Amino acid sequence: MKFKPLHDRVVVEPLEQEEKSTGGIIIPDTAKEKPMQGKVIAVGSGSRGDDGKVVALDVKKNDTVLYGKWSGTEVKIDGKTLLIMRESDIMGILQ
């Protein structure tokens, strides 16, 4: 991928949800909710603080993260659907 996000932006690849519910019911594509889990593909250099210094991001490449349902901007790069969002849109890192 030849794309580098700027400042405090992060590129996330949404992870697909399971085809079945926990009760074993198969969920059709039209009824699936938008994924809220993804893998970080690239991160920016960080945001600038009030003192002008760059503050590094807490997330890094290959982290699995949780984000808000409608977070980010959806783009297609190299045929993949990706999300570009600010680090503040990410709720947490899955361990």
Q: Supply the number of helical segments.
A: 0
Unreliable residue stretches: none
* Global structural class: mainly beta
Q: What best-fitting shape do the alpha-carbon axes yield?
A: elongated
Please count the beta strands (DSSP E, at least 2 residues each): 8
- Mean pLDDT, as a whole number? 84
Distance between the termini: 25 Å
Oligomeric form:
single chain
Instruction: Summarize the biggest pleated sheet.
Output: 6 strands, antiparallel
Give, in order, the helices and strands: EEEEEEEE
Percent range for helical residues? Answer: under 10%
Radius of gyration: 15 Å
- Please give the order of strands in the largest beta sheet: 6-7-1-2-5-8
Give the strand content: 35-45%
What does this structure look like?
It is a single chain. The protein is elongated, with a radius of gyration of 15 Å. A 6-stranded antiparallel sheet has the order 6-7-1-2-5-8, with no helix packed on it. It has strands at residues 9-14, 37-43, 47-48, 54-55, 64-67, 73-77, 80-86, 90-94. With 95 residues, the chain is mainly β. 0% of the residues lie in helices and 40% in strands. It has no helices and 8 strands. β3 and β4 (54-55) form a beta hairpin. The two termini are 25 Å apart.
